[in-house]
């Protein structure tokens, strides 16, 4: 089995790593909260600070009247070999303190940094690690002293605020409660015992300490409490003799104070038989032994939590993307993979796997027919305009059989109106394709980490769509122009075979009004019939051309030029394209560090706990 020191030391190490990475709060149970800690609870002036200093063997905590501890102090003790002793603060990680008077000042200054030079409190903890050969591996949390009334300069809510803060620590199932009570006060009025009883009614997590035994009234003692008759707990009471104010003033060091404490209990007629179970050294060993038991009991649940968190962190890394290689080949592969992912989603929009592609069909089924219906053909083929065009087409020469040039001009003029709807269809599909590019980029999870690559792909895709639109516009205009360049002769041959309804409709001699109204109506009707035939044809051919030139080309070759350009880029240029959002990079780095922490914790717990 692992030694007690190695197991508790490992927990300390993991807790410190959790603290550095900020993994000690938030939603759900963090690894920090799953690991056992000791919370020091007591009323103001109960001797909490003296107990902590006795356990550490160093004089390092701020002193004074009223509320001295105004922020939680997370104190991690690390037992080391050798004779050197030093301290480190989380907020000053690169600074090592060997002067513990400077540690005291730093705690005071760091407290004031958050709370100001007032009597206010803050739940933002100060994290302090002390490395010494004279300590046991232990994590202690010094909390503000419980109080019953607010004094001048404090908010009225200070009593409730302190209690809520203390409860937020001691209510956790992993927290061991070190309840500090002074021997010169009635134990029934102890704030620490009262609170411990509320949050830990069975007493499984509570260790009680009785301080100031040496300043009790003459003729009295605390045997009823220490021997468990006044208030029985599952764990034994421990008596502590604090340094006197005279010792503090004389700067008696803690090693000498421990010796003086041992001598007090050993020579005491009341407590001599309990001397082996009294004092700060015994308290530290007792807490360490209990911590080992608790840690071993909680190892299965801790490992389960670690495995669950590792799975969650891996899933989150997969979601935001794992780190990419630094060589050019890996960068090029990553870019191409991102492009393929985008292209796949873009195709899904067109093919119906995602919404949006159906809007293209709407252009052909609704927008184009509606635009063709609105063409001003009635005005162009009105009787007056037909007369004007027919007359101007023949000039001074009368036509001999039929006004062929007039027919052609009327048809050409009518077909010219079709260019507008044809181009509008091209532009409408172009707009839809651009919108689908934008949506596809936004929906490509793999691309979200690369804003520069997103911009590059969007620019390349839109450039390609512009080229496709230009080709499509040329094609649909050619379709219209082809209808003008060569008329369907069979249509007019059929018209000539129909008997003339009005024999006088085509007079032989020219005059100021060359054609009768019936003949003009006949011409307008013939041209309208021909234009309607062409219109029905263009309703089918314009969509075919647009789909072929724009939609199919977008599916087939949207990023072809981009692929060729990327393949010619140097490593440095590829790296710039993969320039990630700094916040996302920071998030991935934080997740990777947490993942390493949890994997390391799991491996180390396995290696140490089951030796």
UniProtKB/TrEMBL annotation:
UniProt cross-references to SUPFAM superfamilies, sorted A to Z: P-loop containing nucleoside triphosphate hydrolases
Domain GED span(s) in chain numbering: 520-611
Ranges for domain Dynamin-type G: 32-300
Molecular functions per Gene Ontology: GTP binding; GTPase activity; microtubule binding
CDD domains given in the database record: DLP_1
Primary site of residence: cytoplasm
Subcellular localization(s) per the UniProt record: Cytoplasm, Cytoskeleton, Phragmoplast
Keywords (A to Z) from UniProt: Cell cycle, Cell division, Cytoplasm, Cytoskeleton, GTP-binding, Hydrolase, Microtubule, Motor protein, Nucleotide-binding
Domain of life: Eukaryota
Xref: InterPro entries: Dynamin (IPR022812), Dynamin_GTPase (IPR001401), Dynamin_GTPase_CS (IPR019762), Dynamin_N (IPR045063), Dynamin_stalk (IPR000375), G_DYNAMIN_dom (IPR030381), GED (IPR003130), GED_dom (IPR020850)
Coiled-coil ranges (or none): none
Gene Ontology terms: biological process: cell division
Transmembrane segments: none
Gene3D superfamilies named among the record's database cross-references: Dynamin, middle domain (1.20.120.1240), P-loop containing nucleotide triphosphate hydrolases (3.40.50.300)
Entry GO terms, CC: membrane; microtubule; phragmoplast
Key word Hydrolase present: yes
UniProt cross-references to Pfam families, sorted A to Z: Dynamin_M (PF01031), Dynamin_N (PF00350), GED (PF02212)
Subunit structure: Forms homodimer and may homooligomerize and heterooligomerize to form the phragmoplastin complex. Binds to PHIP1.
Family affiliation: Belongs to the TRAFAC class dynamin-like GTPase superfamily. Dynamin/Fzo/YdjA family.
Name recorded for this polypeptide: Dynamin-related 1C
Organism: Olea europaea subsp. europaea
